[in-house]
Amino acid sequence: MNKLILALSLTGASAFVAPTTTSAPMTQVQETKADLVALQESLPGPPGYWDPLSLAGSTILSQWGLTTEEENIGWWRHAEIKHGRVAMAGFLGFVAQCTPLVSGEHGTLPYRGYVAGVTPQEQWDNIPLLAKLQIFIAIGMLESYGEGAGSPEGYVHYTKGGQPGYYPDIKGRVAGQIQLNLYDPFQFGFRSASPEAKARGLKAELLNGRAAMMGLFGLLSESSVPGSVPFLSKIEGFPHYSGNVMIPFEHDFSLFA
């Protein structure tokens, strides 16, 4: 099982993770539905442009004059890129949690109540509530920075013409306590890449993010309903979970108990 999981992690790293090359926010971007069609048609593989619910078109808010088509499209584009990034991290995180290096015995316990040899979902259940809240607070801080909290220099919100998927530099924030940027933390020069390289990288990230969203839900589905994903069901010792991943605080408290 461990060898198979490790093999999956190696293929996942190459298949799902690409440098997230985004464009500088100084350039105003106002995408229309025609731009979305052109983008999708430029990507390899099916299904082409597909929007049966007309999400890229006018909405109730735009009909009321509260948003424009360009703002609506900017929001959807940024949301897809962001969810793809989270899914890539989640896929590799699930795989890593299945390896002895992470889920095995530790000389120093990672947290109070740590139990070795359990599934990734059980690892989450075992984390103390206060530690979970710290994780969510950290995520909220990163999310607020990504939305332009503090008005970083040159930042333009993605609904106002900014580049969808762009994440501003955060090094030096929180009175200097943050010492690395979330994007390109080791300064490999992704921001200074050519426009062509950035465009290729963003397309690769978009495809990898979509694949990762499907892959992550495949892992969670097989873990919750054995046999639901035939490929994964053939892996001996695949971790199964009897809880509900859609109730992340099920073991901490309940609003309906």
Automatic annotation (TrEMBL):
Pfam families: Chloroa_b-bind (PF00504). The keyword Chloroplast applies. It is found in: Plastid, Chloroplast. One of its GO terms (cellular component) is chloroplast. Chlorophyll a binds at residues 80, 83, 205, 208, 210. GO terms for molecular function: chlorophyll binding. SUPFAM superfamilies: Chlorophyll a-b binding protein. InterPro entries: Chloro_AB-bd_pln, Chloroa_b-bind. Chlorophyll b binds at residue 85. One of its GO terms (biological process) is photosynthesis, light harvesting. Gene3D superfamilies: Chlorophyll a/b binding protein domain. Keywords: Chlorophyll, Chloroplast, Chromophore, Photosynthesis, Plastid. Coiled coil: none annotated. Belongs to the fucoxanthin chlorophyll protein family. The light-harvesting complex (LHC) functions as a light receptor, it captures and delivers excitation energy to photosystems with which it is closely associated. Energy is transferred from the carotenoid and chlorophyll C (or B) to chlorophyll A and the photosynthetic reaction centers where it is used to synthesize ATP and reducing power. This is Putative plastid light harvesting protein isoform 25. It comes from Aureococcus anophagefferens.
